[in-house]
Amino acid sequence: MLVEILVGLPTYMYLVHVQRLQSVLNAAAWVIFHLRSADHITDALATLHWLRVSERMQIKIDLLTFRVLHGSVPPYLLGPLVPVRSLPGRRSLRSTGTSSVLVPPVKRSTVGSRAFPFPVVGPKTWNVLPKI
Fold it and tell me: What is the CA radius of gyration of the chain?
């Protein structure tokens, strides 16, 4: 899975690879619509219903987190996520009614915060989603 490879990279390497993938995606759209190099690619991507690479990665991470929370993934992914509502002592708090997930503390801020898919990256992106 491409998302697993790119999420753990340092920022400078992540940006380089995402830009390369985005340029490949843009080139494919240019070929499909027979566009000139001066034409804007945004309309072509919207017509094809293609997201930008960074947006696509966020959606894949959130989708995997959703599947883990609802038990529709292989067993080796089920362990690390803890919904806030299932923590002891949270029975009477407002946070029990939300779909937030506990983000565990990390020891190394450089590597630990980029742990994919879990326990850190999945809950961080999941908790940022708007609540319905």
Answer: 18
- For residue 96, the enclosing domain spans 2-128
Q: Among 95, 116, 113, 91, which residue's Cα sits nearest to residue 104?
A: 113
53-69 vs 11-33: helix axis angle to the nearest 10? 110
For residue 91, give both structure tokens.
């029975």
Alpha helices by DSSP H, listed for the chain, are 2-7, 11-33, 42-47, 53-69, 121-128
Total tally of structural domains belonging to the chain: 1
Work out the pLDDT band at 50, boundaries 50, 70, 90: very high
Whole-structure pTM value: 0.71
d(CA 82, CA 86): 7
